Amino acid sequence: MSDSVATEISKRAAVAARAVAKLTTAEKNAVLQKMADAIRASEQDILAVNKKDLQQGKEKGLSDAMMDRLQLDSERVEGMATAIEEIIKLDDPVGERYPFTERPNGIKVEKMRIPLGVICMIYEARPNVTADAGSLCFKSGNAVILRCGREAIDTSKAIAKALHQALRESNLPEDVITVVPSPDRELMMELLKQDDYIDLVIPRGGEGLIHFVSDNSKIPVIQHYKGVCHLYVDKDADQEKALNILLNGKTQRTGVCNALEALLVHSDIAKEFLPKAAKALAEKNVKVHACKQSIQFFDGAEAIADDAFGEEYLALEIAVRTVADYDGAVEHIQDFGSGHTEVIISENQETVERFIREIDSAVTMANTSSRFSDGGQLGLGAEIGISTSKLHAYGPMGLQSLTTEKYVVTGTGQIRE
Amino acid sequence: MSDSVATEISKRAAVAARAVAKLTTAEKNAVLQKMADAIRASEQDILAVNKKDLQQGKEKGLSDAMMDRLQLDSERVEGMATAIEEIIKLDDPVGERYPFTERPNGIKVEKMRIPLGVICMIYEARPNVTADAGSLCFKSGNAVILRCGREAIDTSKAIAKALHQALRESNLPEDVITVVPSPDRELMMELLKQDDYIDLVIPRGGEGLIHFVSDNSKIPVIQHYKGVCHLYVDKDADQEKALNILLNGKTQRTGVCNALEALLVHSDIAKEFLPKAAKALAEKNVKVHACKQSIQFFDGAEAIADDAFGEEYLALEIAVRTVADYDGAVEHIQDFGSGHTEVIISENQETVERFIREIDSAVTMANTSSRFSDGGQLGLGAEIGISTSKLHAYGPMGLQSLTTEKYVVTGTGQIRE
């Protein structure tokens, strides 16, 4: 029986992965520079194909947001090239090696970081993911299969063509970076079964896509469903800081997973703080969904039932709840949080430390804005995704999340008695 | 709609997990000591129930191996108690905290280790797993759901009764450690869908069980299919060491995943080494499956085709292949290995280092026996399982594999511009 297209692609990627895994950091960086150069040199070709994708998108009636994600211009192409040059500067996690233990019989145990093998990225209309994910997976020693949405697939192929040129010039197989030949759902379904060859699937897109991929994959999937981020203003909060961070978290950008979706206020200071919060939120036209105790402070707020919290608004809307005390805030977050990011505002160091210990969200913050909860802002350099499930990676994922650790054991002839 | 039994169990475990996550190391150790004491005090009860399980097993015609795994005696009960006392001595990974970076705006980024939440162990006839897994999950701050096979479920419940007594005495909910009420497959299937409450599934048993669990789980599963461990004897090997390590790896114990299943010999030394290997293996009655170039050195060996390697014999049988050179050995391992454990024998430090870099098995060894490839031997203290897939954990899994890392971000009022 001949292999399916998905099996064929995956097998070839697995063989190519061996070649990438062997490269030194200097060798990988040289190839990455060639990739950046090739993208710059291919600008006209990439933009010409993108123009056609845009034309087709327009005919299909894509939303403005979708069209914006799809659209490339000279500046965005240059952005892809410089993003690759930023990845060159990042530390290479592969090969990191540190002592673990030495056993009484003299065998030495170490841990060593190695690539995962083959990563499959599944994304929708952002063609720049092709260059970003391609170069991040390459730097971390992996091969990658890129399954791009129908809208952007030709632009993605044009970008991949430039990356392939750099691979060929470096005597590496093109299978190191594969854009799937077609965006068909059947091909994607087949890819998700290639657990013999693919090590990790990273879907980037809406909750529907991520559920679909998780439900249909035999391969481990990085899950990132939603970001229902909470701000808890403690009784010992600096209320000025709290207001700034509330506004920044809710209004600096709304359609993102690290925007605030709920404000919890300690009952001791509710009467003092909530009128100030109401004024500030009203000035920014933020719609408020308030609990029974809070609603009196907000003009035109909508009432919200005690079991109806947990909404990801992704808009100028926020839920507000007065909690009895610190424990009430923790309980609310445990019941309604999504494991993404939570913030406490308090000048009481003891309360801050309790919050840090007791909240198990991927990014647990004190006295700063939830909007800093992403790979770039936290110093990871570049982000391949964010995980809100605790397995393998939790929170923003950088290069290290595309690797794993093995044991290295060396002896001088020891055998087991 | 009322919850299913599986949902009910999982929800309760998730609530109990919050209580365990909050405990300090000293508090957890005190509970563990109570568990060890309670197991000792319950010896007569546990053995009485085990006797009934054994009687039923006999009537059902369980294999000798299965009956041996199922059987407890005074010594084995004491073994469970002392195993828990060993876990008390292990370092608690939860709460470990280290600096990650400080950003130009002054926010401080740290990483902190936290429990996973709820672990589900699926195992067959070993009742001691109930105490081992129960106490390991507890020490790492998790709640655990134990789904034991039909043969051992009553013994497991008797053990859990002792553990519950220790939990009650410590004012902790019994839901911290749950043995499922029944070993029904339907209940297991339902448990595998509780991805809202269960964070990780660890199956322990044959390949069939692991495939079944992986194929039917919506929750991440630790996979450990098989151990096809290779010994590569390089041209620069100390042949005396090689022979010792070959015999130890193949014959010290055969039914285990870290036993050797294949010997690869560099063609330069095949003529010299293989006759010695043949003699040694014959003395131990090891059946040999040899390649075309090797078969001449073995009396009564069976021929094996070049594409038929990769068998996990779990018996006194071994595959032998002469490889052209070092690269041939690496290629063979990449084609036929299972990612578990591979060993090189060589006095050439450069070749050893290449092997360590280029082989991506979970435990990559030089000049020592594959039989050391387990948690206890590598100094992990206790082992909850072995992962042969690279996600989350790779190789023997200790306490740390039952935890994850979150980001801790602290500021002094910073907001994003």
How would you describe the overall organization of this protein?
The first copy, chain A, is α/β, with parallel strands linked by helices. Helix content of chain A is 41%, strand content 20%. The first copy, chain A, contains 13 helices and 16 strands. In chain A, strands 10-9-11-8-7-12-13 form a seven-stranded parallel β-sheet, sandwiched between helices. The first copy, chain A, has a four-stranded parallel β-sheet with strand order 5-4-3-6. In chain A, a hairpin with a 5-residue loop joins strand 1 (97-102) and strand 2 (108-115). In chain A, helix 1 (5-22) crosses helix 8 and helix 2 (25-41) packs antiparallel against helix 5 (74-89). At the A-B interface, helix 1, strand 2, helix 10, helix 13 and strand 13 of A face helix 1, strand 2, helix 10, helix 13 and strand 13 of B.
Write the layout of secondary structure elements.
Two copies of one chain form a homodimer.
Chain A: H1 5-22, H2 25-41, H3 43-60, H4 64-70, H5 74-89, E1 97-102, E2 108-115, E3 118-122, H6 128-139, E4 143-147, H7 153-169, E5 177-179, H8 185-191, E6 200-203, H9 207-216, E7 229-233, H10 239-251, E8 260-266, H11 267-283, E9 287-290, E10 302-303, E11 317-323, H12 326-336, E12 341-345, H13 349-358, E13 363-368, E14 385-387, E15 395-397, E16 403-414
Parallel strand pairs in A: 3-4, 3-6, 4-5, 7-8, 7-12, 8-11, 9-10, 9-11, 12-13
Antiparallel strand pairs in A: 1-2, 2-16, 14-15
GO molecular function (chains A, B): glutamate-5-semialdehyde dehydrogenase activity; NADP binding
GO biological process, one term (chains A, B): L-proline biosynthetic process
Protein name (chains A, B): Gamma-glutamyl phosphate reductase
